[in-house]
Design goal:
Largest sheet: 2 strands, antiparallel
Low-confidence stretches: 145-153
Mean pLDDT: 78
Number of domains: 2
Strand order of the largest sheet: 1-4
Number of strands: 8
Helix content: 25-40%
Radius of gyration: 17 Å
Strand content: 15-25%
Order of helices and strands: EEEEHEEHHEE
Structural class: alpha+beta
Shape: globular
Number of helices: 3
Length: 153
């Protein structure tokens, strides 16, 4: 999430390309490559409803997307989700800080839904499990694994 830039979103906005990692260490962002060769340069499909939401976000909210209605120049390396300069101002040059997002929004939403303690990484496992259980053949490379799964096989 924090390592996705606008250049990782194809024009059709039906998927997201994963080519790098980003982690924060001592208030600095460190960029690298995924842990395994299977994780490098993979394309993760989006559910149609989520692709629609992302299209709307890129058009109406993100100022540097190629489809933005805000009249700003397209910046391919701009993070998909911005960090913050302060409590009231986004920093579109820096990615969102997952720890803050988890603490202030995600954990609270999970508690209110009765889910208890959920980590962002749990969403990756949920995605892989739901793909495996679906009626459609799913490729484990979406999650950075080499194996191929067929539901019901």
């Amino acid at each position: 999430m924090r390592d996705v830039t606008l250049s990782d979103i194809p024009g059709t906005v039906g998927s997201i390309r994963v080519v790098r990692t980003a982690k924060r260490k001592r208030r600095q962002w460190i960029y690298g490559t995924p842990k395994s060769d299977a994780s490098t340069d993979r394309v993760v499909p989006l559910a149609p409803w989520l692709a629609d939401e992302l299209r709307d976000y890129l058009t109406n909210v993100h100022p540097f997307s190629p489809t933005s209605t805000q009249g700003m120049k397209y910046i391919p390396h701009a993070p998909l989700f911005p960090g913050r300069r302060n409590r009231y101002t986004f920093d579109w040059a820096k990615p969102v800080h997952a720890g803050s997002l988890h603490e202030h929004y995600f954990a609270q939403a999970c508690r209110e839904c009765g889910l208890g303690s959920v980590r962002f990484h749990d969403l990756r496992h949920t995605f892989a499990t739901m793909n495996q259980m679906s009626d459609v053949a799913s490729d484990a490379s979406f999650s950075g694994k080499r194996e191929r799964f067929l539901a019901g096989a």
